[in-house]
Amino acid sequence: MRAVIADDEPLLRHHLSKLLGELSSSIDVVASAKDGIDAVEKIKALKPDVVFLDIRMPGLNGLEVASIINDLNVLPHIIFVTAYDHYAIEAFEQGAVDYLVKPIDKARLQKTCERLANQQEQSLNRDDLLSILAQVQVKKETPLTWLKAAKGEDIHLIHVDDVEYFKAEDKYVTVVTEDGEYIIRTPLKSLSNSLCNNTFWQIHRSIVVRVSSINRVSRDITGKMVVELNNSNIKLPVSRNANTLFKQM
Fold first, then answer.
1. Parallel, antiparallel, or unpaired: how do β-strands 173-177 and 163-168 relate?
2. pLDDT (tens digit, 9 = 90+) per residue, 149-178?
3. Which of 5, 106, 111, 117 is the most core-located residue (most Cβ within 10 A)?
């Protein structure tokens, strides 16, 4: 089976491709895509038998990609990849598609490979896919409200309204409030997608900041944009991709 992997995380694409090579001699990864638009182009050009689609991608998300490729004469098997084990799992479990939860578990991927082998002679039902996509797209995730974060040996309950910003460290995320710093182990990408995007902005690959905590935006001596927070001397870097968040309205 010819496969395409679509995910905006290069390490995940490499890891998934490596695991597939170890687990199945019948799955050949023929291409990888870094975003939804790239995924659509490669799927239509290569017509793979199976596509591993990240739900959260720039350009087009995995659900939008699946909708667009629905006009292909023969639909590939679709494996959705998600950082959320609560994200529309009920719909995915109906059987027309499969799903994997990040970080990808080797044993779980083995089951996916076995399932693909058993379904190799079956074409995906177009109506089933449309039904699943409709169900998933109407589901609304409730933004995260409370955090369980560690400080020393203690666990604290922190309301997201009290958070000034999140900063990704080596193996954890630091939660910064007016009262101090705490630690959680949820990946920043997963955390960012659980927050209200009108309240929190990801301004850097390692930083998500509460919009109301921003005092002003300026440039440092190198010309790079930085965010200055209210009532503090803290300055946070803004990545080039996030510069558009601060364009004058």
1. antiparallel
2. 999 889 999 999 999 999 998 889 999 999
3. 5
